[in-house]
Design a protein that fits this description.
Length: 238
Amino acid sequence: MTGHETDEAAEEAAEEAAHREFLRLLGGLRIWNHPLPGFDPVGLPAEPVSLFRTWLTEAAAAGCPEPHCLALTTADTEGRPSARMMTLADADARGWHFASLETSRKGQELDGRRHAALLAYWPVHGRQVRIRGPVTLADAAAGAADLAGRSPGARAAALAGRQSEVLARREDLAAAYGTARGALADDPRTPVPAWRRYLLEPDEVEFFQGAADRRHIRVRYRRTGGARPQWTQELLWP
Ligand SMILES: Cc1cc2nc3c(=O)[nH]c(=O)nc-3n(C[C@H](O)[C@H](O)[C@H](O)COP(=O)(O)O)c2cc1C
């Protein structure tokens, strides 16, 4: 064996050992190693948003970190999906609201294909909620109002823009944030037209209550009505 081959063999052995260690870690991790609440699917609210609010409120009360952060999945025009975390801005009778830059990847994907999915997971209670439906863009005033309620850092980030573009040099980011902070110091209401509020109007919302014995309870709400939504509830096999 040459010295080069010996190095390669040692590197491979180290990689294999690291992989074995990783698999050992995965094998030792557990889900729901703590008591989970029960969930009676009888007598649930007629529409899904109140149950969602109850579950989020209960997760927050139980100390679940960032219970208002959900994964948002969009797809490009070829149907290739892309997911990322988003902060929930509201959930009301119309649907689930979030905000972002319309120039970002998600903004462009939503522009080309308006269907999306949101996913909430609260490990503390073993609860998952899946939401899907078309997304609409709220008017510019809604975006401005949303941004006005955010922290100075968040406003500067929005104003600097360029979310999801390739960042050629770290210094470019520092310079853009510096410029944005300066502009906001001069005028805290500096508009950021690309910052928009989005509304996902659900056609389906599924509530999943995990159970240690794997007899999970799944209840799906399906929208059946038109302008005045009606909801059908059905149980799903776990
Ligand atoms: C917990 C958490 C919350 C986030 N909330 C938001 C948000 O409300 N709006 C937003 O534009 N990006 C948010 N982000 C950043 C996004 O996950 C993502 O990196 C960014 O929006 C770019 O996504 P895109 O390339 O798919 O457009 C959040 C990230 C995390 C980890």
